Amino acid sequence: MQAHDFMREAARLAVENVQTANGGPFGAIVVRDGQIVARGVNTVTRDNDPTAHAEVNAIRAAGRALGTFDLTGCELYTSCEPCPMCLSAIYWARIEKIYYGCTAEDAARYGFADAFIYRELSRPRAERTIPMVEIDRESCLAAFQAWQIDTRKIPY
């Protein structure tokens, strides 16, 4: 299969997802060594899960299929440019390349606007729309200290 074939599969998943009313008009696939490893569609409304975007679902499925959280060597094909949350998940997964069909501007024309989140992330914590209040930092640092000395940890 070629890049256009993989993108058509992501687009097909997105259209099928609309037709089955499982969630938004988004589909994604993870590819490794020219083979589809995992597929994902947006299931936000079906699962009542705001994080259940197509890319995140595809990444979760790829991790299960490959038995690893490190998706180095994988590429992601997604029907639309990833939102900030999905983009972060892609970086955390170490996916090496992203192919996308529609742009963020295309998505915004259909009511899926990410610009607000990008603006919020660029603002200082104290100026964000959702208040962020730091409390009890010292007791929470205990988890990092435990992690630091744990000989069984798997760094990621």
How would you describe this structure to a colleague?
- The chain is an alpha+beta fold and 156 residues long.
- 46% of the residues lie in helices and 17% in strands.
- It contains 7 helices and 4 strands.
- The chain has helices at 3-19, 44-47, 54-66, 84-93, 104-109, 115-122, 137-149; strands spanning 27-32, 35-41, 74-80, 97-102.
- The protein has a 4-stranded mixed β-sheet.
- The longest helix is centred in the first third of the chain and has 17 residues, at 3-19.
- It is globular and about 50 Å long.
- 27% of the residues are buried.
- The model has no long low-confidence stretch (mean pLDDT 96).
Describe, in short, the structure shown.
Helix content is 46%, strand content 17%. It is α+β, with helices and mostly antiparallel strands and 156 residues long.
Write the layout of secondary structure elements.
Layout: H1 3-19, E1 27-32, E2 35-41, H2 44-47, H3 54-66, E3 74-80, H4 84-93, E4 97-102, H5 104-109, H6 115-122, H7 137-149
Parallel strand pairs: 3-4
Antiparallel strand pairs: 1-2, 1-3
